[in-house]
Amino acid sequence: MKLLHKELSNKILNSFYEVYRELGYGFLEKVYENSLFQELKSKGLYCEKQRSIDVFYKEKIVGRYYADLIVEDKIIIELKACAIVDEHIFQLLNYLKATDIEVGFVLSFGKEATFARRVFSNDKKKVHKSNNRNTDYTEERG
User: Is residue 136 part of a domain?
Assistant: First the structure.
């Protein structure tokens, strides 16, 4: 079985472990986000921090989330400063569902450096919005 975006995935994981070796455990997620962003950029990769992603329900925007990192418009990275739990995996899968991106990682900078990789192919997605950068979302509060 061929691993989707294998070379890029390896670069991301190598960068993740490099940051973990340098910083270790105990910082806030934002410190790891900024460090990993710098490490990926130093390897010549195109990265975006906190890209806005719209969530649709029946063709209407009902929410927005911000991806910690998106690399080369091919992989979403969700960072955690704690151990990975099931909710983090479901969060990542929902992020993948809301985009054209098929591969994602949860990277844990917890007591041990761990990761989870998930693939959600576009042909299985109910909502398929390209670029997903719509700006006419207004949150309603009750």
Answer: no
Distance (Å, whole) CA 36 – CA 19? 6
Read off the CATH number of the domain in which 68 is found. Answer: 3.90.320.10
130: left (phi over 0), alpha (psi -120 to 50) or beta: beta
Residue type, 30: K
The rounded distance, in Å, linking the Cα atoms of 69 and 49 is 5
Query: How does pLDDT run across 82-107, given as a tens digit for each residue?
Result: 999 999 999 999 889 888 899 999 99
Checking if the pLDDT of 38 tops 60, the result is yes
Confirm if 79 and 107 have CB atoms less than 8 A apart: yes
What is the distance between the alpha carbons of residues 12 and 132, in angstroms, rounded to a whole number? 23
